[in-house]
Structures are given as structure tokens and as C-alpha cells.
Amino acid sequence: MKNAIFKSGAVAESLTGPPPQSFRHRYAPPLENNPIPRLQQTKAHLRQIIQDLRDDAGNVTESKAKALFETSVSVLTRLVKAFDDYENKFKRRGELNSSRRS
After folding, report:
1. Dist CA 19 CA 100 (whole Å)
2. pTM (two decimals)
3. Which segments of the chain are extended strands (E)?
4. Is the pLDDT of residue 69 over 50?
5. pLDDT tens digits along 19-63
């Protein structure tokens, strides 16, 4: 068997057979490619940050700092909306794909 050494330093035992299990496990995409749980977790974190920024904006007296907090709230709120939109499209696409199979 001939070994191959890649630029990264990884060693493959054979170029003709299947890749070693550890290589396949490390670089293959997950069997279930569903981003929804991670999106929901990220949205929850963002909502907590938004609430913290709103609280901070209410406690700050300096006008530029208050504007910075309020702008941050606005930007993150739009980001949460973008996550919601993506999640809804992803779910609809899944429903469409499952109804086509039936």
C-alpha cells in the first residue's frame, strides 16, 4: 500500500480504497443537516442581548451611548427577523419536499 501525504500533513494510507473512518467522520457533512435547532438557539441568545441593551439604554444618560445602544437593538432585531424568515422558508421548503414525495 502506498501512503499519500497532503499539504496539511494528513496521511492517507491508500488512494484507491475508501478513506479511513476517522477521516470520513472528521470531514463528511453530518447525516442530518438541519440548521433549525441552532438557529433557534442563536435567536434566543440574540433576544437576551437585545433585552440587555434595552435595559442599558434606559440606564445611560450620555446621549451618544444611548443612541449606540438603541441602534444596536434595532440592528439585532432585524437580524432576528432575518433568522425567522430563513427558518420559515426552510420549514416551508421541507413541507414542499415531503409533499412531493407522497
Report:
1. 35
2. 0.61
3. 4-5, 11-12
4. yes
5. 555 554 555 445 467 888 899 999 999 999 999 999 999 999 999
Question: 23 Cβ partners below 8 Å, 6+ apart?
Answer: 10, 12
Buried/exposed code over 31-53 (b: 16+ C-beta within 10 A; e: otherwise): eeeeeeeeeeeebeeeeeebeeb
CA pair distance 77, 50, nearest whole angstrom:
7
| Residue 57, CA atoms < 13 Å, CB-side half-sphere | 16
Chain Cα centroid distance, residue 56: 27
Please state the domain extents for the chain: 4-101
Phi and psi torsions of 12, nearest 5°:
-110, 130
Kindly state the DSSP code that residue 18 receives in the 8-state scheme. Answer: P
